Amino acid sequence: MGKSCLVTTFLSLLLLFLQTPKYVNASFICYGDFFNNVNYGVSRDFLFSSLPSNVVANGGFYNASFGRESKDNRVHVVALCRRGYEKQACKTCLEHVIDDTKSKCTNRKESFSWVTDQSDDVSCFLRYTNRSTFGKLELSPNVINPNPDNLDSSISKNMIMFSEEWNAMVNRTLEAASTAETSSVLKYYNATKTEFTQIPDVYALMQCTPDLSPGDCKRCLRECVNDFQKRDWGKRGAGISRPSCYFRWDLYPFYKAFDNVTRVSAPPPQASSTILDCGRDKKRFQGSNIAIIVVPTVINLFVFVVLILSWKRKPSHTGINEALDWNDGQSMVRFDLGMILMATNNFFLENKLGQGGFGSVYKGILPSGQEIAVKRLIKGSGQGNMEFKNEVLLLTRLQHKNLVKLLGFCNEKDEEILVYEFVPNASLDRFIFDEEKRRILTWDVRYTIIEGVARGLQYLHEDSQLRIIHRDLKASNILLDADMNPKVADFGMARLFNMDETRGQTSRVVGTYGYMAPEYATYGQFSAKSDVYSFGVMLLEMICGKSNKNLEKEEEEKEEEEKEELSAFVWKRWIEGRFEEIVDPLAAPSNNISINEVVKLIHIGLLCVQENVSKRPSMTSILFWLERHANTTMPVPTPVALLTRPSPSPSPSPSPSPSSSL
Ligand SMILES: *[C@@H]1O[C@H](CO)[C@@H](O)[C@H](O)[C@H]1NC(C)=O
Ligand SMILES: *[C@@H]1O[C@H](CO)[C@@H](O)[C@H](O)[C@H]1NC(C)=O
Ligand SMILES: *[C@@H]1O[C@H](CO)[C@@H](O)[C@H](O)[C@H]1NC(C)=O
Ligand SMILES: *[C@@H]1O[C@H](CO)[C@@H](O)[C@H](O)[C@H]1NC(C)=O
Ligand SMILES: *[C@@H]1O[C@H](CO)[C@@H](O)[C@H](O)[C@H]1NC(C)=O
Questions:
Q1: pTM (2 decimals)?
Q2: 375 assigned to a ligand binding site
Q3: Domain 153-265 carries which CATH code?
């Protein structure tokens, strides 16, 4: 009996100990002159005595003054609790900070403290001064309490990306906190929980005293942010305060302020990475831009070298941290599945844009209003989470104005989803194979599209750090933006689906008959030159206004052995000089493109679809010839590959790739 009583007492003492809130004075400072007037202390303590109940009674914020200025004993106090406080917890917090202030600042004229209590759900603020500070922005003194630990080395090795995500988080929190919330007495407050690429959750909280203007609140918080960046950058958290505001961030939820906060993802990559776009408007490469371009290019070069070295060392997929080390500052978004479901209205059928070999594409709208294209990958990419994230991270690094931009991804539950920029005008096949829409495509427009696609492919093959072979280039994988500029979609899928890209031979052929180079379709051998072949087919389709499919229909009436590929159709007429039979009669003539230039296009197309792989030109040569005034002679095309139709069960079997976008 006595024993169990002892245990109970011990347990309840322990409980009591555990329940006692542990207050952490995130910032506490006594300052100003010492006062020698006893009545100053009396005024202050008088105000303190009713302060906790007054704060609660007034909705969380209260200010008051007492004493005579002429007698040098007038004191002004300001106090508040965090928005969403519980009444009792708020009172307890204030009582604690009042006791603390009385004992620590016995005869100082001023003090302020922003207090947090880790075990309970409170943070509160107390300040007293000998002058009225109501409505005034007060920036000094400042108090910084950094977390003593540094960020993990995996993160600190790649501070550029962390920095971008951190800044975006801080900006977002700051913007929200300094927007006055009129429905609350505590006008300026925000708490955010953000998923970074390298860290699951980062917590930030900002608050200003409600007597400020929004602009002053913003300025104060910005100063706190700057304080941290200047003094403690690299630490894994901090609380920074000034008399008018408070900012705290950490890698753990520092109080219940985050209970009801929904996690958001780090922001989409900035458009700053189009640096590799050496497109036609070279004007942009002048003056002050040089520095901006040169620096990332050097970094890219470095990244590229590292990449090559890593590939040599490790032929297979590497861990995410290494991939992140390569990152040169682009951030990538991981989207919540909930967000994707909301944006696409639960993959609503009417939002479906197309269906490709690797999954379906849906249109979506983010809460910000941004339109996106969501590609829901077919199950079984065979990648682990890390590998998937790793690959996507690499693909987001590919940025070119003629490539569809990958904004981020989502892999939650068993979904694997890619999020792309939305390109408004649908895919090229919807234009080129449509009697009406084809008329919109003047020779000018067609030339621009061909050139743009060539640039996108050149970037993938030669300029990007990854050297991607597309493997499924076709009209339906070329999207047109509002100005009819082409953007290549669906690149890098083979990487994502874990197919060996380094050997140049695969047992899994992805692609579309008619577009596939014969050596790829038959033997699974792929190279940049098999993409060149597909490019050639697409180019010829643009010139003829026919697809392989349509051609088949036209030829249906003819004898069986006369069925031919588009390339063969063009080749036969080319060698007989019957150009007019090749060229699309619906293409509106244009002043800028002469018939000679159209003939040049056919010539290039035929060079691309030559049977002899080594004779097919590189994308760089093609672009050189496409430069309108390049007056060079092109090689004479050798015979095109005459593909025999695949038997019903071809081996290896290609993935079905019906008309799709992305
Ligand atoms: C708070 O300060 C303002 C401005 O000095 C003053 O008008 C107001 O009366 C104060 N509130 C209280 C309760 O004293
Ligand atoms: C407050 O104290 C400071 C420094 O002791 C003094 O210079 C100032 O005049 C005081 N302000 C008022 C309003 O009493
Ligand atoms: C955050 O805001 C600052 C100041 O307005 C700005 O200079 C910076 O570019 C912003 N950073 C991000 C990542 O949005
Ligand atoms: C922070 O601001 C965002 C954007 O205004 C808002 O959606 C969110 O509810 C705010 N969070 C808190 C805890 O006030
Ligand atoms: C979270 O939301 C619940 C329900 O609305 C509310 O009762 C609770 O007080 C909130 N918690 C915080 C810390 O705001």
A1: 0.48
A2: yes
A3: 3.30.430.20
